[in-house]
Amino acid sequence: MSTSEDENEDIDAPILREADGARSGLNPMFGDWQHRFDFAPVPYGDGGRSKREFEARIRAELTHIKWMYSSEVQLDIVLHLDVQTILETSETADLDNYAKSILDGLKGPQGIMFDDTQVQGLCISWLDTYDTPHFLVRAKGLADDFLLKPVAFYEMPDGLWYPQSRLLWSDGEAEPAGDLNHFVGLAISELNSAATKRVRHELRRRGRSRLDAYRASKYVATSLRGYHRSRIDGGFPLHSRQTWQRARQEWQSESPHESAKVEEIRAGIRQVYDDMALALTPQ
Which of 27, 70, 100, 182 is the most exposed place for a label (fewest CB within 10 A)? Predict the structure, then answer.
């Protein structure tokens, strides 16, 4: 094989890896995902049993999806309905009614996102169809802002709950995180959360408004996001700060060598966040 062919293979490798992962449900394709749901959309206003059954049908279509968006998402929803029913009967609803019921079906442990607040942009439209009623959902997030299922939430110093998985996406495969990687991940969230809280407190103490302090603190780490407890679906496992820290202490006593590695990594991360906090709140 020629050198140029080898180079082309190297260039194509990440694309092929993403494509293979997307086909097997392990990742969105560089953050992009779409799916056609071959049944009629149900408006939120219908409520009750029909709404619950509709959400269950959406989630049943997502059983092969093994990941969830962990941050902001852009959604584009297209309803394929016949124009006569829309214009000349009372059988359809306003577009915003359909959007809400579809979003409810897309979130939760079996969905592709945790909560509606992740939806930063939403476009919903309808097209006339000669086919049976159906709808298409396209979602777009950042390429690396996803977690593999199952996902659990962990309480952090700022009072918010941060998502984490015990599986890691690695070269197109799902690999167990292991206790070392698990507790390092929690350490990153913990130190990020504490630094964010410290920056906000210091800026508020200096007279900055609540919103200004919040915006400034976002520079601590823009890729990590915590969720208010009320925003987390009851189907996700929840680990209070006391619970997961106790589990970490027990693991550290049983695995002193790996524990030392975590403490060394934590020290380095803490220094990074301390430097960020100092830069955002100069004396």
Answer: 100
